[in-house]
Amino acid sequence: MASKPSIPKGTRDFSPAEVAKRQYIIQIIKSNFEKFGFQPIETPSFENSETLMGKYGEEGDRLIFKILNSGDYLAKANATHLENKDSTKLTSSISEKALRYDLTVPFARYVVQHQNDIEFPFKRYQIQPVWRADRPQKGRFREFFQCDADVVGSKSLWQEVELVQLYDTVFTALGLEGVTIKINNRKILSGIAEVIGASDKLIDFTVALDKLDKIGEDGVKKEMIEKGISEEAIAKVQPLFNFTGTISEKINQLSVLLAESEEGIKGVEELRFICDNVTALGLSTAILDLDVTLARGLNYYTGAIFEVAPPKSVSMGSIGGGGRYDDLTGIFGLKNMSGVGISFGLDRIYLVVEELNLFPDTVRATSKALFINYGEKEAFYAMKAIKELRNSGLKVELYPDNAKVAKQFQHADKRNIPFAVIVGDQEMNTNTFSLKNLSTGEQVSLDFEGLKKRLA
Hints:
Elements: H1 16-35, E1 39-40, E2 46-48, H2 49-52, H3 57-62, E3 66-67, H4 79-83, H5 87-94, E4 97-99, H6 104-113, E5 122-131, E6 143-152, H7 158-173, E7 180-185, H8 186-195, H9 202-209, H10 212-226, H11 231-236, H12 247-257, H13 262-281, E8 287-290, E9 304-309, E10 320-325, E11 339-344, H14 346-355, E12 369-371, H15 376-391, E13 396-398, H16 405-414, E14 419-422, H17 425-430, E15 433-437, E16 443-446, H18 448-455
Parallel strand pairs: 1-5, 7-8, 12-13, 12-14
Antiparallel strand pairs: 2-4, 3-4, 5-6, 6-11, 7-9, 9-10, 10-11, 14-15, 15-16
């Protein structure tokens, strides 16, 4: 007996109902991307390995799915590496391509490759799948969609202000009230490390600080000491462990703490500009919060950093994130091309919206009405109406077979189709249609215009 087919761990099949809900979220994100002036692009599912490798750090490289060369991929393999079972060095000779890990590096490649055809500043959005050889768990998959919006070619902080508004607009449209948009600045983190005399320990310092809500103050201090950060240095950042107050109050505290760091003060002023203008313009339902422990890929970002947390009633990791990068395209030879971008985590957003039961009843992947098939004459009469209804944008269909009526009604019920349209001799003689509400059992006789109005 053949074994039951399966799919790889970390991937999923989506039912019609699930696809309809995903498309609902995507459409809201897409429409708001375009409302804010972003233009769509698409890049290939796989890139040349040299485009991706080395751009995400050692851990990122390990999570990139490599594609074996076509044909006899071992024919050109380095014999020494093969004999020594040195997989790291062997990979480059048997795999020249890889599935994209994210949308940002391919976007940087796109900008450099098409720089003569692009009008800068360039606002692009991209909604496509990416792949990571990660350990699957709740909210984390090996194949998932990213929904990115980036602006390159401008250093203006008004872009950050707009991106915060974009987050707010999208989550408000989805009904996700109480989403928290956390903000920090890479320069502030660098300034703190500088002030305490631990610039060479920047990564260790911020990685430990980022765990404050998980392991507490004592745990963070212990980890910092283990990483070689002195107790004297830790004492200087004591205010960070009790960093409370309004955004304005937090910024003032940072101004005092970072008074001796030019880099840190610059970060404070950038934060002040963004937060003051966002506050003045107002947000609909989202909450803006300054989180000095937020780090997000220190080797990647150079300015503002964003991370979005779902409503507190939901247990889920971040549902969005992003930040400013001053020289992303420099990795491909195009220097001084500043950019800033954010991403929406489609899969996690889906889980949150589902858990909070926020999908409208109108989000359905099924037809609005099923025409019951009583025979060829009746089917032809029905099909003429079906054609007109479809031309009006309505989702309707004919049961294809002249099967038992009970079976046809069962089919509509299992498909969650709300209405059945009955066409028999009486309806054809009077040029009408009998519309039955399958939830209430109510049945009415209507002419075509009346039918169209009821189904609209």
